[in-house]
Amino acid sequence: GLPGNLVIAPDVGTDLGKEKKNAQSRANNAMIRKMKAAGSDDAKLKQAAEELATSPCLADQMVDDWKAGKQTPMAMDVQADHPIETKLGGPANMDDLKALDSNVNGFFGNSVAKIQGNRMLDQQQDEVSEVTFLCTPPCSPPHSGAENNDYSTSGATPLPASHPNPVTVSSRS
Question: 132-141 burial string, b = 16+ CB within 10 Å, else e?
Answer without folding.
Answer: eebbeeeebe
